[in-house]
Amino acid sequence: MASLSTLVSVVFFFVARSFGCLESQFGDLCTSSPLRRGWAQLDGILQRPLSSGALQSPLNEDPIPAASPSSPWSYTGDCAQELGDESPTCVYANRSFANGRGISIITTPERAAYIAKTPAFLDSSILSHVNDYSSPPYEERELPGRGRGLIANKTLRRGDVIFSSTPILILDSDSFEFEQDSVQEGQRYAAVVNLPSKTEMLFWGLYGQLWQDPITDRVNTNSFAADIDDENFSVVFPEIAVCCTSLTRDTRLLTKRQRLNHDCRPNAEYYFNSRTLTQDVVASTTIHPGTEITISYIDVSQPRDKRVSQLANWGINCSCHACTRSATLTAASDARLAQISELDRNLSREIARPELPEKLLSLYKEEGLFGFLGAAYRFAALSYCAEGQRSQAVKYAQMAFDSALSDNALNLDQALHMKRLAQRPEEQMCWQFRQRFE
């Protein structure tokens, strides 16, 4: 992993990007981000209490102009539209968003208006404790063979929020569809330079594969897929990136950079809330002090060879325990994953006897796939509901609902159904289903 360790290299970074002349130091990598979708968007219903300007100088923090009372945007412009498109896409920036962190959005006027009416923009208190790394439950360390990583310095329980952050860039999927690359690049440049200078430095500290232009490379490498108002967007969080560079303290600009490494058996998950525009990193199991906090970049329910191949496409050599264990243990793991896939497929089609979801639960735990437990809890709740076993149905329904806050296994409708089942099992369609129809 590269490190920008001197002020000279920082200045070079900014000069070089102006001419598009940065060259890769990291070898051949593909241009798509491996970061998988953090799709558990519960939109506040299950939400936890919320504890074209010129290039700015990187050496001076510029003042943050407030958006006008009539508009949330401190900058709008750089609109572009293809023939046949109903609306143009434009750059919208708010430099005071999230206590001065700022945000730039490339989208249509209609979608910008929708985003401007979300709680994230209407109630600044919602974000008062977001992007706060003053006393984190972890510390950043150098790890042999893994670069830098986050190490827990206190016990974290399943469901604990490790940190929350807001995106600095949000890019509408429509903004990726211009035939001329120069249009995309121009909009993205305007979006980046209209961020506060500290936040702009966070963006430039991200790793870019440098196959296209410096901004597009960083967006492609580090963006997450997210849905806002049922529309597809790419969002960039500097604190959660595939890999990133870091500046020395001499610059006095880059504060509290995070680095979450990949593991095929992660102990944390991440979620995007489209109402508060925040990404939470949450413990998916108990994490003890001294343990590295990890997330997964891919679908880790795949067999080992597929995981290794997918990660290798992005230049990532998987060195986690699940990828490096012996051939015998790997074969046993792949066999369990095949069982998991078959059970999940069967349980998704019909309500089975409780033995099957209990078996699925056992396999998930044995594989260390704690981020998938919610699905098995839900299947178990439905099975016991169909049997008319009230206490077990309520128990697993509550566990499934609670899991909606700490894993990616349930969508919103499923989570709310589990809440109703836990509260009033006799009123649900599954109640004594087997006795009534068999």
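Next protein, fold it too.
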Amino acid sequence: MNLEHHVVSPPVDKRELLDDPGRLLGHISRRLFNISRKDYVQGRAALRPESTSSAVLLLIGSQCGENGPGPCLILNKRSDKVRQPGDICCPGGGITPALDGVLSKMLTLPGMPLKRWAYWPRWQDENGANDRAVSLLLATGLREGFEEMRLNPMAFRFLGPMPPSCLRLFRRKIYPMVGWISRQQRFRPNREVDRIIHVPLEWFWEKERYANYHVSFSPRIQGRGNRESDDFPCFMFESEGRRELLWGVTYRIIMKFMASVFEIHPPDPARLPVISGRLRRSYITGK
């Protein structure tokens, strides 16, 4: 490995980083840049947004709402007016090439998120065409974040891209863009979002929050996967007095982030409790 261009992260106690936002953000940025170099620069993956691609924002903030101070994930709970109602997800959506193409050029102007990203000059030098792809994906995520929850793009600090994940039921590739929200504490959800969810990062060290989600499918959904039921890893937490579940692609994105940045891995699935659920026709139709 050529160490000359590799950003080395000094040894740290990962959980202690949660008490020091400056060190935390520096650590996240370094780890994500090293991951993206491996996946995108060295050819193990490609940043190639297509018609079936989406961009989402994995948002981290310093205010955990009802859970007090400390870094947390800021997520959306989908409303019953859209597909996948009730799911916890990252803000984001499909690419609108014309509009997002224009917005992507603005992101490289002075004071804008890409221009403020510490690794943007090196990303441009090493990535070639991928610099245009990451700007397009980030523009898509920020536009969708504004539409869904009135996210202020000027309060967003870009920390780096993550490798894509795939939706199983909807055949879509999702590109996560990680960012820090420094000032904005209030959001205004649109009709697609039931409410904003805050999940403290420190909860992911608590093994009792992990479980297996056994899901049975209605006949309409069975036809998509040729199976009556399936098992998914999940993460349990409480929000506004209700139990919530992280599962599916959002769970996979978050756990990939936690493993890459904090070296956190879920417990052995064979030792975890089982939670049962059912997906009905409305899950894929939104009706």
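About the second fold: Residues 68 and 166 are 33 Å apart (CA to CA).
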